Amino acid sequence: MVDKPVAFVLGGGGVLGAVEVGMLRALLRAGIRPDLVVGTSIGAVNGALVAAEPAESVTARLVRLWSSAEAGAVYGDSVARQLRRFAARTHLHSPLPLRRLLERELGEDTGFADLPVPFQCCAASIERAAEHWFDSGPLVDAVLASSAVPGLLPPAQIGGEHFVDGGIVNSVPVGRAIGLGARTVFVLQVGRIERPLSPPRRPWEIAQVAFEIARRHRFAREMADLPPGVAVHVLPTGGGSPRDDSPWAYRNLAAVGRRISRAYTASRLYLAKHELGGDA
Question: At what angle do helices 19-29 and 256-273 cross, to 10 degrees?
Fold first, then answer.
């Protein structure tokens, strides 16, 4: 039984966000459609496409997108070019490939009001040091702001304010969906909350561990404070790899197909087990 309104919550996680495509395919094939979509970072990218096309057909489009040369170009600069850019700037990659990809998929002039399903995405405001939710205005600009991973992409400037990746402040925004009235929430997460943390042993692991603590603490707190009458389903990824936590994992698109397939199978079984969806 699925009580309405139904929200899809799509979390952040870079290239690991391919698993969300498998989860979406399982949900939509089971006849579960969103009344609301909220997303952060890569979840904002996937979520915007679902809000624009809330039908199973969008999953084939997402598979093509994730496997495309354009997706590879988002973080496709050579290491030498990245290091030259980083020596003079605050980021490794240009935001133009991602902008071009989003404009192709969503349309240059599309706004939030044009979407058939309400959609919101989260970013972090630098000037206000605060969580910011986009729910109106140009869609591509907002998704870029939500996806501006510090150090990888430059902050996005909108209305004189600078924004970076929403995962810094709200990586898996369950509370936002509930606050907007959702009664059934499907959480599409990339698997990091499932893996145990251990003390850092290498310099780059210090920031990774600190960020994971912040990410998981907020998610755990929101899950512990669920109001009565709200059902939250955290969909499974089907497993991952220790290499997913490598500092260069964000560039590796080779495992996209496996991630999508594993997450689809695991989520399909989850929905059937809990008797969710028209054919589950």
Answer: 40
